[in-house]
Amino acid sequence: MSRSLSCKTLFEISSAPDSSPPHGIDYQACVIPGDLQSGHRRHGDLMWRQFYNLTRVGVQGLYISMFDEYNEGNQIAKTAESGSWVPAGSGIRAIDEDGTACTSDYYLRLTDDGGRMFKGQAPVTTIRPTQPWPA
User: Fold this and answer.
1) How far apart are CA 36 and CA 28, in angstroms?
2) Torsions phi, psi of 88, nearest 5?
3) Contact indicator for 103, 133 with CB cutoff of 8 Å
4) Using one digit for the tens of pLDDT, what is the confidence trace for 16-70?
5) pTM recorded for the entire structure
6) What is the C-alpha separation between 10 and 58, in angstroms, rounded?
7) Contacts for 77 with CB less than 8 Å, ≥ 6 apart
8) What secondary structure does DSSP assign to 73-85, as a single string?
9) Nearest 10 degrees: CA dihedral of 8, 12, 14, 18?
10) Cα Rg of the chain (Å, integer)
11) CB atoms < 10 A from the CB of 51, how many?
12) Residue 46's CB: how many other CB atoms inside 10 A?
């Protein structure tokens, strides 16, 4: 039997997937860093919670969405640390808009730490180990 693949965010996954997906559709768990346009990033707390929940329920794989989606503020690629780094009139928001200073590579580091937890190389914890600005 042929099955299609669909991406689901944590908001759409309420429990661990079973061995026989409904209607022949396999779901790929999706982790999002948030959306700066809507103010959902919360300096990494949203993304870490998704890594934790997906690890805890035992999904077999996950997908990070997106690498460089600057127009929606949903990227993990290096990002402007403050408004002074953003070109005037671009409409792009800086990573510190929630009031927490973060390094430009913060979401890449967070992705690395989340991946290590997901693979069992770090403890499963609700506490985000990645510091927005390392000491």
Assistant:
1) 24
2) -55, 135
3) yes
4) 445 455 666 667 888 988 765 666 777 888 899 999 999 999 988 898 988 887 7
5) 0.78
6) 13
7) 67, 68, 70, 107, 108
8) T---S---SSGGG
9) -30
10) 16
11) 25
12) 17
